[in-house]
Amino acid sequence: MDKEPGKGKTFIALLIQHITMAQISSSAAVLAYYTLLSIFPAVMVVGNLLPMIGIDAKTILAYLSTAIPESVYSFIQPLIYDFLRRGSGGILTTGALIALWSTSQGIAAFQRSVNHAYGIAENQNPVMNRIVSFIWMIVLLVITFIIIILYGFGEQVLKSIQPIFNFRRDYILLFSSLRWPVTFGVLFIALALLYYFVPNAKVRLRYALAGSFLASLLWMGLSRLFSFYTLLFSHGVISYKTIGAFIAMMVWLDFSGYIIMLGAALNAALQECHEGELHAKKHFWQLVERKNKNGG
């Protein structure tokens, strides 16, 4: 991959190359597996935190229904609503531990897959890899919590400041109805952070944003398309009720993994096409190890 920007392979050829390098099929399956493991423990944790900040579970479900196919949502909605309404210290602790493990495993798997897409070898030891995955899991949880607070209290905040700034009450109704743009924005920001910071490659932000936009758009489209598909074949797999809905959820998670990895491959292809050779970024612990070796 040692070449000047814009020379050699075309963008399409580079995209195909990075898609192949990413091993999208196996990577998507791994991401779907760890996502499934982390969903309900994470919901347990959120459900125990909601009463502390005064947000109704229905507020969370309203945004969740926008990003998830209807057939999958109808399957998990009762479970998630029950988890969100009830909570205890024991469930919080257990859910937090399981969510920490499964989410960090998922992020570590995502990092390996994205590194393959960029053609960058692993340049950190397993211990540091786990630490970095854990840190990113904490960052994502904090961002999610902030977003929940923002859109859970957003309407109340607007109502309280409306008499002060004297703006039209229609804006409050508009804010409450913007579930699609809000969900798209949340996906876009979360994916941009993952695409930019998680890979071991030196990623430029403008290319990470391109993949984030495409992946968010495809993800939202997948949910609508998947709902339409299950509606057409509602007398087939979905007629098996719980088992059918579970299968539908796994298929949707697998396709979601495809989309996420496609976004990563697009980022890598765009950057290589415009910037030339892709380089690994240097971590501070590698510099320390090198300094110690030279000193020794």
From TrEMBL:
Transmembrane segments annotated in the record for this chain: 32-53, 60-81, 87-110, 131-151, 171-198, 205-222, 228-253
Transmembrane helix recorded as keyword: yes
Swiss-Prot/TrEMBL keywords: Cell membrane, Membrane, Transmembrane, Transmembrane helix
Transferase is among the record's keywords: no
Subcellular location: Cell membrane
Membrane topology value: Multi-pass membrane protein
PANTHER family for this protein: INNER MEMBRANE PROTEIN YHJD, UPF0761 MEMBRANE PROTEIN YIHY
Protein name as annotated: Ribonuclease BN
